[in-house]
Amino acid sequence: HPSIFLPVMTMPLISKALRTSSSRVMMTSSVSRRGASSLLIPVFDNAKMLPTASCNQRRRYSVTHPPNTGSDPLHLFRRECISRKLCNEDGTRRKGAHWVLSIAANASADNASTEPPNLRTVGIQRLSSDGIDFCVKKGSRIASQLQQMESSPNGLPLSILHLQGRIVAGESAEQWRGDGLCYAIPLKEILPHMPSVTITSMVASQRIQAERDDARDDGDNDDDDATTESAERTTVGNKSHTTEVIQRTRMELESGDLSFAEQVASIQAVRFVPYRLECMKGGPDSIMWERWEWKRPVGNDDDWKSAEWESPNVLLPH
User: Fold this and answer.
1) 3 state SS of 262
2) Which position has the higher pLDDT, 95 or 64?
3) Which phi and psi angles does 303 have, rounded to 5°?
4) Residue 231 gets which letter from DSSP?
5) What pLDDT does 71 receive?
6) What pLDDT was estimated at residue 34?
7) d(CA 59, CA 279)
8) What's the gap between Cα 111 and its chain centre?
9) What's the half-sphere exposure (Cβ side, CA atoms, 13 Å) at 289?
10) Which residues contact 191 (CB under 8 A, 6 or more apart)?
11) CA 102/CA 132 separation, integer angstroms
């Protein structure tokens, strides 16, 4: 309830009322413009003032109840992203939002490989009950592995990590981790939600890579512009030429002259479908981090993608 401050000169008129009132009154002083001290009395509408709790007393000493049984963690994930203005109500990326996901895939299909996992950060384009959609450049390791598995019903194993929020007083941070399988999806499903800078950089990179491939085919291997480490780690070489290609691609995209066919040839849309998701949430005002885990069975057909999630488990913070 709002407080109404009355000058001290009115005290004789209300002293009797104050003695009989159940409201607790705190006397505060302030200094007037002339330097004289005047006493102000806050009058509350049948409200009681409670002692101010210390920082430690304000901390939560109980863990929040886990979500309901059978709840969809992807729905909860999207709800949190909406509240932080990362995505729209339909789960699509908000314009200008820095909405990213770290992904890790096996270095190769060979389980005996000693190479470290392929780790990278991608932009989330859409989050729905079907999964998490993002994109990678055609020719990258993940895109190449997906292409090799086109005839297989099994998806590509993938692990994800998403962070949001801030660890400051009065706020909380979240960490979403998960394991699942990813599948190639049509680019047209997420292309309208992709930032123009992502489209431009991927198409331009493919154009430069194609130029270097042609240069090698012609036997022109003396120029540094033709040296590459791999299809996804290509050296810049001539920076002026690279900048020119990117600028030209950007202008074509803005004018509508960049063909859809070239975009499809340069960008691979991917959907991550989790079979395990985990959320850890907390902050400075929490006595402990809250951590939940959801699981659902995985099968060899597509039915598991729509299977209901099991009841969430409450896990220790570490």
Assistant:
1) helix
2) 95
3) -65, -30
4) T
5) 81
6) 43
7) 20
8) 30
9) 15
10) 199, 263, 267, 269
11) 12
Contact assessment for residue 155 and residue 141, using Cβ atoms and an 8 Å cutoff: no
Q: What is the CA radius of gyration of the chain?
A: 29
Contact 232, 225 (CB under 8 A): no
For residue 15, CA distances in Å to 22, 132, 298 come to 13, 65, 73
Contact 45, 1 (CB under 8 A): yes
pLDDT tens-digit profile of 141-174?
899 888 887 766 678 999 999 999 999 999 999 9
**Maximum C-alpha span of the chain:** 102
| Residue 167 in tokens | 């660890």
**315 phi and psi angles, rounded to 5 deg:** -110, 160
Considering only 5-9, 109-113, 194-198, which range has the smallest mean pLDDT? 5-9
59: which 2 tokens?
């901390």
Residue indicated by tokens 């009989």: 20
Give the model's confidence band at 22: pLDDT under 50 very low, under 70 low, under 90 confident, else very high. very low
User: Mean pLDDT, the chain, as a whole number?
Assistant: 79
pTM attached to this predicted model: 0.74
In the chain, alpha helices (H): 11-20, 73-83, 141-148, 196-217, 239-255, 260-266
- Tokens encoding 180: 């699942």
Residue 274: phi, psi to the nearest 5?
-85, 150
C-beta separation of 103 from 117 below 8 A: no
